[in-house]
Amino acid sequence: MSVEYDVVIAGGGMVGASLALCLHQHSGGALKVAVVESFPLPPLSEQGPSYRPSFDARSTALSYGSRQIYQALGLWSTLQHHVADILSIQVSDRGHFGSVLMRHEELGWPVLGHVIENAWLGNVLLNHLRRHTNVEFLSPASVESVQLTEAAAELTIQRQQALQTCRASLLVVADGAESGLCARLGIHRRVDEYAQTAVIANIATELSHQGVAYERFTAEGPLAMLPLLPDEQGQSRSALVWTFPEDDAEQAMAWSDEEFLSRLQSQFGHRLGRLQKVGQRAAFPLRLSFAEEQVRRQVVVMGNAAHSLHPVAGQGFNLALRDADALARRLAEAARSGVAVGDLAVLQGYLRSQNTDQQLTTLFSDRLTKLFSNRQPVLSLARNMGLLMLDASPPLKSRFTARAAGVFKGRDLELPL
Ligand SMILES: Cc1cc2nc3c(=O)[nH]c(=O)nc-3n(C[C@H](O)[C@H](O)[C@H](O)COP(=O)(O)OP(=O)(O)OC[C@H]3O[C@@H](n4cnc5c(N)ncnc54)[C@H](O)[C@@H]3O)c2cc1C
Predict the structure, then answer these.
(1) Pocket test for ligand 1, best of 60, 142, 323 (most atoms within 8 A of CB)
(2) What's the rounded Cα separation, in Å, for the pair 210 and 213?
(3) Which CATH class is domain 85-117+194-286?
(4) Of the four listed, 25, 231, 240, 352, which is most buried by Cβ atoms within 10 Å?
């Protein structure tokens, strides 16, 4: 006999796991939710994180807005032990005059944001899901086929080499940027190739970062150094995201540690003293992609499967978390009023509520990426004038910082390009 759920989430990555927690919280556990994740779950543990898809060696800059969402879920008291605070952001252009420093005091916020290692975020989210909610976690398992009927999504799930069927009022597709389920459902994607690859690694530094996040624009492409908590030996560390034209990234991955550090030092300068050690490197090809259809009756597409952004502005996950929170609130409200959670009008209402945020955040990330990846002299001058103007104008700076922190609700910034 087939099992019945209100919501099945395909993909238990950062977005799928966060959505499951939001659904549990906002419905008070009334919605029957399952998460299907193809990667095996690690044992329940508070000892330390383990790497797996989504919760890999990267770190994520969580905006102040995301902190508020995790606070409402009752998770912040645990997460705060694993985050480094961002107290200011310094944006600069290598070899040029413009630079800008944004401080938390200017907005009257306690912090501008936080940085967490993805593996720790995964540890906290998955432990909380398994210990404190009634969400079912099916893993390793994958959704093999979907049949949409009048009343439900009928799913075939592969688990332990066996096929089982289930019915869900709503299927959430959160299986990442290469979404196999979107392809299976005939949901097309608009893709804009940046022809860039992000190389990430943790860097041990001589000086402490003092809560400063650095965004620096270099001849190769944008480079970010985000503050991390010190390691167990008290060594100060920052998380590097260094963007290269895709043909150069392979070389950068092959450089010896010494060469990598020396090239990074010459691009980044001595703001953090000598760069002492580089951890394990990983490369991520970058593209802007957008699902052309995010909702259908009984289906909603979320996270990277819905929109995948350039990481330069640190917006992708923060946007997806705001989507997850908004969707969970709407579904809980529908369920309380006796409306099916897969109802098209409910899902369209969710999408309408998030549409402006999605458009503005995508535009902000895309324009910032293009503006700061371009070495044409005119654009370089415009960029540096822009940085100077931003630094000289407190209201403009506040709006820029608020948009970067994902809590800006008013008229948005106009970036050139
Ligand atoms: C270098 C880099 C740095 C970034 N930094 C930031 C940042 O600072 N701030 C920010 O906001 N964003 C950042 N992002 C963006 C952020 O990483 C993404 O928004 C986030 O990873 C999206 O998560 P997701 O759960 O949608 O997808 P994924 O992380 O891809 O997870 C998808 C999950 O689905 C599972 N899966 C796949 N197929 C199936 C299937 N058929 N059945 C079941 N399960 C399946 C996978 O195993 C995986 O666990 C960064 C991105 C990059 C590349």
Answers:
(1) 60
(2) 9
(3) alpha beta
(4) 240
Q: How far apart are CA 256 and CA 138, in angstroms?
A: 41
Structure token pair of residue 272 = 């953090």
User: Ligand 1 centre and the CA of 54: distance in Å?
Assistant: 5
Q: Is the model's pTM score more than 0.85?
A: yes
Local mean pLDDT, 10-residue blocks, the chain (417 residues) = 92 97 98 96 71 83 92 96 94 68 82 93 93 95 94 94 95 96 95 90 97 86 92 94 92 96 94 96 92 97 95 89 98 97 98 94 81 59 55 63 56 38
Q: What is the DSSP letter of 55?
A: S
Q: Which superfamily does 3-79+118-191+287-365 belong to? A: FAD/NAD(P)-binding domain (3.50.50.60)
Q: How many Å apart are CA 88 and CA 82, to the nearest integer?
A: 19
CA atoms within a 13 Å half-sphere pointing along the CA-CB vector of 140 = 8
Which string of DSSP letters, residue by residue, matches 275-308?
Answer: EEEE---EEEEEEEEEES--EETTEEE-GGGTEE
